[in-house]
Design goal:
The structure holds two protein chains of two kinds. By secondary structure, chain A is α+β, with helices and mostly antiparallel strands. Chain A has helices spanning 48-54, 63-74, 78-94, and strands spanning 25-29, 34-39, 42-44. Chain A starts with 24 loop residues before the first strand and ends in a 6-residue tail after the last helix. Chain B has a nine-stranded mixed sheet with strand order 7-6-5-4-3-2-1-8-9, covered by helices on one side. In chain B, helix 7 links the parallel strand 5 and strand 6. Classes of the chains: A alpha+beta, B alpha/beta. The interface between A and B is medium-sized, with 21 and 26 residues.
Chain lengths: 100, 377
């Protein structure tokens, strides 16, 4: 069996440009007044930080850029934001919520 | 039910959270004859199906009520010629739409139209990885090949794909091949779903029930595949509860998150609920969906915990598994408010597991295929 045909996991790094695939939808749920992520057979309820990150995941910004923007917006150390954001996005990538 | 319990449950209905999911059984017509079909043994007739406008109105009401996910099922939903209109309405009112299909009637053009109407996700069932056995189980020659073709169209059109594989003693040896097939089809998600024994599956239980060892082995295989395919293929695993010690939180709890609507428009707390006598089901033809969700006798009968008897009433898990499955309790204990026999605390648990072990070790009887009763159409 050749490795070329083996499925690969999306690995999130500073240069990754994460984006929500077309079938994953981030939207506000008016009935429950909260943000939700709709995916096949799944409803995720991201916290405020995850929502802030996901709203910047447009496929053109890198994780490093996203972390820098959030560091400025929230006046927080960029290295900490980058580390937290990478962990969060890796988790979401493993759930199929983001690709890069 | 005592007057006090009825009052407590009516009150539970009044403050119940909004439903998350709607299972729309658009029709009971289906070209396949799978012996584990979740439809009732008494299939509803084509002439009594809800018309297009009724479904469009129901979807608008569902979205208003707070439903997020719409599962278009059946029977085979693609036999409805108005499926495009229904999908377009789901997109318009903001419901995430999931087409649950046998896929043998799909054409590339139809799938393209459905995608253009805003379909979010396609779920295709496979009966096995082995074409001959798959066609035998579905009693439909050439069906497996058509399903694979439809799956490739879905991927080519950019639609996310779930492969649903109902698992039982007559295909469980193929599980590794089924996982590989899902990967090669480019599926995003695989449901390895051990058959749940209701409806036709209950009638065919002896022909379908795997041994405990087979179930454990399938769980190990899934766990290893999950690790290997992490980030690439999501695998959901549904176990049969005959070998369990704690019951499943059936439907996430009765009347807590899911609504099922039958082809005729009856609104059910679960798709098997009609097997329980004494429940009064409302119909979307006569009432608003929100009023039914909050006020229907059938929804309030087993909502919350006020209906519970021992051992459920004092159980520390009563708001975790919500007492398990009411249909199974009725089928085995003769009363839906009894404990689910899948629970180790049920006095019927040993007998329940014994049935599975005996059936699984005896030779499999012939399938009773899913067919409408003679003269029903």
């Amino acid at each position: 069996m050749s490795d070329a045909n083996q499925p690969r996991r999306t690995i999130i790094g500073p240069a990754s440009k994460p984006v929500l695939p077309p079938h994953v939808k981030l939207r506000h749920d008016a009935t429950r007044d909260r943000w939700i992520i709709l995916a096949p057979e799944r409803v995720f309820t991201p916290d405020a930080i995850a929502v802030a990150v996901l709203q910047l995941c447009d496929g053109s910004r890198s994780v490093a850029t996203i972390a820098a923007e959030l560091a400025q917006a929230y006046d927080a150390p960029q290295e900490d934001i980058l580390a937290d954001t990478t962990v969060m996005l890796q988790d979401l990538a493993d759930k199929g919520v983001v690709t890069a | 039910m005592s007057g006090t319990a009825a009052a407590a449950n009516a009150e539970a209905g009044a403050r119940v959270p909004a439903p998350i999911g709607l299972l729309a059984e658009l029709t009971h017509r289906c070209p396949l004859q799978c012996p584990y079909c979740s439809n009732p043994l008494e299939l509803e007739r084509v002439g009594s199906e809800l018309p297009t406008e009724a479904w469009l109105d129901v979807l608008a009401q569902a979205a208003e009520l707070g439903v997020l996910q719409l599962h278009l099922s059946g029977g085979e939903p693609t036999v409805r010629r108005d499926l495009e209109e229904i999908v377009a309405q789901a997109a318009k009112v903001g419901l995430y739409s999931n087409l649950i299909t046998a896929a043998v009637l799909l054409t590339r053009e139809r799938l393209e139209k459905l995608a253009a109407c805003g379909l979010d996700h396609v779920q295709i069932s496979l009966q096995d990885a082995d074409p001959a056995n798959a066609d035998r189980i579905a009693h439909y020659r050439g069906g497996h090949a058509r399903k694979l073709e439809a799956a490739s169209w879905a991927r080519a059109l950019g639609l996310p794909l779930t492969v649903n594989a109902p698992i039982h003693r007559q295909n469980i040896a193929s599980l590794p091949a089924i996982i590989e097939l899902a990967v090669s089809l480019g599926a995003h998600r695989l449901e390895v779903a051990h058959v749940q024994y209701y409806g036709w599956a209950l009638a065919n239980r002896a022909a379908l029930m795997p041994t405990r060892e087979q179930v454990l082995r399938s769980a190990e295989l899934v766990e290893r595949a999950r690790e290997r395919l992490k980030g690439f293929l999501v695998i959901d695993f549904v176990v049969p509860d005959y070998y369990a010690s704690r019951p499943k939180p059936c439907m996430g709890g009765w009347g807590r998150g899911i609504i099922t609507i039958t082809p005729w428009g009856k609104v059910l707390p679960c798709h098997a609920a009609e097997t329980i006598p004494g429940l009064d089901f409302d119909n979307v033809r006569g009432k608003r969906l929100g009023d039914i969700w909050r006020g229907s006798q059938a929804f309030n009968a087993f909502r919350g915990i006020a209906w519970m008897r021992e051992p459920c009433r004092s159980c520390e898990l009563r708001e975790v598994d919500w007492g398990g499955c009411r249909c199974q309790a009725f089928a085995f204990a003769g009363a839906a408010a009894e404990a689910d026999p899948a629970c180790g605390k049920s006095s019927r648990h040993a007998a329940f597991t014994q049935v599975a072990m005996q059936e699984a070790s005896a030779p499999a009887p012939a399938f009773r295929y899913r067919r409408p009763r003679a003269g029903a159409r």
